[in-house]
Amino acid sequence: LFAGPCDFIFASAKAGDLPPLGPPEIAFAGRSNVGKSSLLNALTNRKTLARVSHTPGRTQQLNFFALGGEPGAERLRLVDMPGYGYAAVSKEKVASWGALMRNYLRGRASLARVFVLVDGRRGVKPVDAEMFDLLDQSAVSYQVVLTKHDELKISERGAVVAATAEALSKRPAAYPEIIFTSSQTGEGIPALRGAVAQLLAE
Ligand code: GDP
């Protein structure tokens, strides 16, 4: 699934502008700088994906990629969601971000799960909780992926996992298992691939 091509297929810049439904979609969300680009590169074994999403003008879009086959015959779509929580962003941009996200999240039948990246050094912050709120309200299954595992001491890792589990415990749409990853060491990447493969098998 992750060894084959990973081609850019569609960019959604405004609400209502989405590609026709196709195979299952998995989306990746997270605050700016959480390590989303690095993780997507590690997950898909290539650099093109994040390069496309980081192209000027594309950072505020939902970027769709075909996985496990050529576009049109792909087994899975990966959706790179625009980063959030960036302090310098205008109110208008926040509003259009919200409209874009809500439009996609509400009633996208092929959306199997959103992986919400949370910085392992920081833990769950209010901007992350706002994303959880949106997903709970949209009744979209989501799973937290902690990033930057390599930046924490062994003794600190258990505490951040426990605090994250606690933050998710009463959230209806949250999948309880937390995956701790590092794009630098590869920690957690097989577990993340396994979670995706399991979604496809369901
Ligand atoms: P994005 O804004 O969420 O796409 O984040 P990036 O992937 O561009 O990463 C933001 C910063 O975090 C960069 O300086 C990366 O080098 C760093 N980073 C990303 N992943 C890791 C990781 O697993 N470990 C460490 N130590 N740094 C990381």
UniProtKB/TrEMBL annotation:
Described function: Necessary for normal cell division and for the maintenance of normal septation.
EngB-type G domain mapped to chain residues: 22-202
Cited CDD domains: YihA_EngB
Record organism: Methylocystis iwaonis
Keyword Cell cycle listed: yes
UniProt cofactor(s): Mg(2+)
Record HAMAP family: GTPase_EngB
Keyword GTP-binding recorded: yes
PANTHER family noted in UniProt: ENGB-TYPE G DOMAIN-CONTAINING PROTEIN, MSS1/TRME-RELATED GTP-BINDING PROTEIN
Name of the protein in question: Probable GTP-binding protein EngB
Keyword terms: Cell cycle, Cell division, GTP-binding, Magnesium, Metal-binding, Nucleotide-binding, Septation
Family named by the database record: Belongs to the TRAFAC class TrmE-Era-EngA-EngB-Septin-like GTPase superfamily. EngB GTPase family.
Superkingdom as given in the UniProt entry: Bacteria
